[in-house]
Please model this.
Amino acid sequence: MYEFKYHRPETLEEAAKLHGSAEDAQYMAGGQSLLPSLKFRLSHPSDVIDLSRLPDLDFIRTEGDALVIGSAVRHADVAASDTVRGAIPALANLAALIGDPQVRNSGTLGGALANNDPTADYPAAVLGLGATVITGKRQIAADDFFVDMFETALEEGEIITAVSFPKAAKAGYAKFPNPASRYAIVGVFAAEAADGVRIAVTGAGASVFRASAMEAALGQSLAGGAELPPVSPEGLNSDMHASAEYRAHLVTVMAGRAIEAAIG
Model:
């Protein structure tokens, strides 16, 4: 890897100040994406700012009708949390499917969202539940947060501090994983929210997206028994793992399984 300066701030304010004063800084949360890119010399930051010691970012709690999770919470802790399972069981189930034990015990919610890998699991839950991403500066609705492949609405130096997930009447997640990495070739999160059904798809496109035709067919209830419309392969990913046509088929299959998990 290339040479860089390493920092481990104790507060959000210190982290932001370090970022602002550096030539080309990158934040690091769990390091599951940044460290490999550093090792393979795909990234060349002047400074790496480690956020793992910031205590204000590591919490799980309920606030009224919402489940709020700090950005530094590890995937394994989300999966094992009684608070999460009591509020949104599908979110705990999703976290348990991420990667392998090493990834789950190192990777964080905030890091996964800021990276916005097109095959990551958490974006489907955030978009499917209509969550709110909270930063040190503002609150960003899920529908506005995910922009494109590895791109979000975060501004330069902005830090995710927490995510607020509305409790859904019903929710479920299903994915077809890559057998090696466990990333989603296609993953679908289905939720029956206050504003109706939301269906979010990860792994199939350049970024997570809502399956609007499916949402329209289902209306207000996942248990209505409506037939899911087919998905067009146009614009979907096509690579060595799966063609766009196969991914389009998987979206319908995984959506059906996610709905079954939600209502079953």
Q: What stands out?
A: The chain has a mean pLDDT of 96. Residues 1-50 form a domain with the Uridine Diphospho-n-acetylenolpyruvylglucosamine Reductase; domain 2 fold (CATH 3.30.43.10). Residues 205 and 236 are 5 Å apart (CA to CA).
